[in-house]
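Our consortium's second objective concerns turning raw sequence data into structural hypotheses that experimental partners can test. To show how far this objective has progressed, the report includes one record in full. It was chosen at random from the queue rather than selected for favorable results. The single chain below, 285 residues long, was entered without modification.
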Amino acid sequence: MKDQAEGLRRLVKQKKEFARIIAVTSGKGGVGKTNIAANLALALCQRNFRVVLIDVDLGLANIDILLGITPAFNLGHVLRGEKTIQEVMIEGPLGLRILSGGSGITDLANLNGWRLEVFIKSLEMLNREFDFVILDTGAGIHRNVLSFVLAATEVLVVTTPEPTAITDAYGLLKVIRQQGPDIKVRLIVNMAKSPNEAQLVADKLNSVLLEYVHWEVEYLGYVLQESQIAKAVADQQPVLLAFPTAMSSRSFQRIASILAGDQVNVANAGLRGFFSKVYDFLRAQ
């Protein structure tokens, strides 16, 4: 199994030069977006992919709490020229690398041309060092959230069966479709009581999207609600490692397997292009 995963990773790397940038986002808070971002990142690490998880949730950055780590620095320090990417990036479980965005990431819009170029160049080494860049974004359709979502080439929208979560997911999906029609967007239903309930949520969303947006979002999968997740969060451990045989852990493995097997065209600009888009979006507002 390990040899097969290593072979797959080599095959993917041969077909591209840059990391896949996947933004994990949601229409509202409290739907388990960060939990999904962290566990999917770890599930990809288990498949021998090189993964960096970047916390760009400016309102409620809590990757560090979930993983039981305490970053001393964040990307804000890099933007201000106080630290390098290597000094800010820390190592988590399974070799996962973690970058905390911090509130200073909003300084990106205020950088002058020289400082922006220095920052962008500092990111170029990450393009070839990693196979996946997982972004844990904020929730909603605020411009700071959309700047990261619309700059990514792939987006995972997380919702739950709760009615307001579905409504807000629809609003977010509508905006993404209208402003980023070329982005590969997929849906994950979290905290579902059963696979059938999750499928009903996906069907309900697509019914409304078809009627008003003339588009359907791809349903990627579900994560079931169970006590092991709450226990793992309380213990500051990812459920994938704390309870590897739990239903939720199997769900993360299944979704990661789909992501790992994707054939996705990666933009040549990689992280340089991504953060350039974020900068342009923030400056335009």
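The partners drew two points from this record. The chain has one domain: 2-284. The two ends are 48 Å apart (CA to CA). Both points have been shared with the crystallography group to help prioritize constructs.
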